[in-house]
Amino acid sequence: MQVTLPLQRLRLWWENAFWVIPLVGIVLGFATSRAVQGIDATIGSAEQPLLSASSAQTLLAAIGGGMVTFTGFVFSVILLVIQFGSSAYSPRTVTYLMRARSIQWVLATFLATTTFSFMTLIGIGSAGQASTVPVLGVAAAVLWLVLSLIGFLVLITVVSRRVTVDSLIGTMGSLARRQLRRHHTAARGRAGRRVREVPDLADEARTVRYAGRPGQVVGVDAERLERLARQHGAHLQVLVRVGDPVSVGAAVALLAPRIGTRLPDRELSRCLLVRHERSLKHDPLYALRILTDISLKALSPGINDPTTAARSLAEVEGVLRVAAELPLGPVVVDAGAGKVVLPAATWSDVVDQALLEVLEAGIGQPQVTRCLSRMLTDLLADVPPDHHAPLLRHQRRLRHDIRTAHLLEQPVWLDGEGRGRGGR
């Protein structure tokens, strides 16, 4: 979360650059064709070649043209599969599915095969000799074709695995746990202190309005904010955190500057890295948001798949266990005479994001209420006592909603202590 923006911009560019690896495939196909043509010209042979020029042309044209059609067909099918998966789980899973490096490398192999075949085809009959046949080039084209077929099998395996519900939910859970730990480690490396509540600024603090393109906050340049606060002796409280949407003119910070100093809104807006969509690698709670969306989608009347919701809640429980071990909350950084307050999710924020909406939608689904009841009871037994308040709040609401819906006729769903006795 607190990283320099140039480095994070580079990481985000690489994360979103779907075209780079396929372009490498085109360059590799062109370079290998030139190298093989050079070897063919050096080796040469006065003997009768293994292939005639017309046979070589036919074979290379078939490989190149066939790969163009094959590539278009395969990726049309892949896009349809990804679209189906996103509609079944959550539209936000498209980013995860499309940015698989294995898919990009397979596409690069297809494009390299096409480029190599056409470039070798052009070389037939070159140097003024109509009988020149690049035998090594034809063999290399066949080798590229074999690699493409192997890549196709890999592609089918990867895509089918990534759109499988259990694999997708498991990956989102792993990402959520890893990003929470990583961002906690990055925040701990700063010369700041965690606080439970954000300190109030002076009454003369003014509101800083965002001046930039709208989108989602994916990064905050804490070093630059600290430097500005130190130079101007200002107290600065950031109001938006990673994952929040911002639009032009939105309040993004409170500023209490030293008398005689002035910090323009545009200068402070440059400390926020804003993109069109959130990032799974730089947003500690985005994967948890996707898990919640998957549960809500599964519990919608049109789908009615409580088993998927229960599977997602199992991963959510793991995320909450990791979050309970971390000192969450805002960070206050002392910058000389100034001060910077950086917002961050608290334990209560994480619990609410994980359970609030699912609890609302899951009433009436015994499988989900059992899972929620067991989860809350187990977490209350394992997390520190100072983390009990939000869990108890959700447990009381769950029990009240179940009673209201007259679902307590089957005691196997929920016992008097809030523990489900009917299994998951």
UniProtKB/TrEMBL annotation:
This is DUF2254 domain-containing protein. It comes from the Bacteria. The chain crosses the membrane at residues 12-31, 59-82, 103-124, 136-159. Keywords: Membrane, Transmembrane, Transmembrane helix. Coiled coil: none annotated. It comes from Terrabacter lapilli. The lineage of its organism: Bacteria, Bacillati, Actinomycetota, Actinomycetes, Micrococcales.
